[in-house]
Amino acid sequence: MVRTILQDGNSLSMTTVQKGQQGEVTTDLKYTLDGKPSTNTTATGESKSIARWDAGHIVIMTTRTVQGAELKQAETWDLSADGKTLTIESHLTLPQQGEFVVKQVFDKQ
Q1: Does this model's pTM top 0.85?
Q2: CB atoms within 10 A of CB 62
Q3: CATH number of the domain where residue 73 is located
Q4: DSSP code string of the chain
Q5: How far apart are CA 14 and CA 3, in angstroms?
Q6: Tens place of pLDDT per residue across the chain (109 aa)
Q7: Nearest by Cα to 40 from 15, 70, 21
Q8: How far is CA 34 from CA 3, 11, 14, 106, in A?
């Protein structure tokens, strides 16, 4: 997975390129960091998010419907002091599967 993130003031955009069984998939997401709602469309459908700064971290709250079930995701982004490592901790909630946490660590290229 390669993720390109651009932040300019209250604008945040993210392009993710991921290779898997279905080949290479590219996803583009855009947020505002002022707490206003953002809507993004991906291969799995539409998602609605609210992104904001919270104590030096970016927090993104997202809801989307996947295969008829509502998925809720709360992400906390933490950038290392040297700006070279981004850690994203995602708390996901699915009606049938319950809650789980996914932690991703990205190194700046």
Answers
A1: yes
A2: 20
A3: 2.40.128.20
A4: -EEEEEEETTEEEEEEEEEETTEEEEEEEEEETEEEEEEEEETTEEEEEEEEEETTEEEEEEEEEETTEEEEEEEEEEE-TTS-EEEEEEEEEETTTEEEEEEEEEE--
A5: 7
A6: 899 999 999 999 999 999 988 899 899 999 999 999 999 998 778 999 999 999 999 999 999 988 888 899 999 999 999 999 999 999 999 887 889 999 999 999 8
A7: 15
A8: 22, 9, 16, 24
| In contact, 9 and 25? CB cutoff 8 Å | no
d(CA 24, CA 17): 7
Residue located via tokens 């708390």: 91
Residues in the chain: 109
Domain tally, the chain = 1
Q: Which domain holds residue 61?
A: 2-107
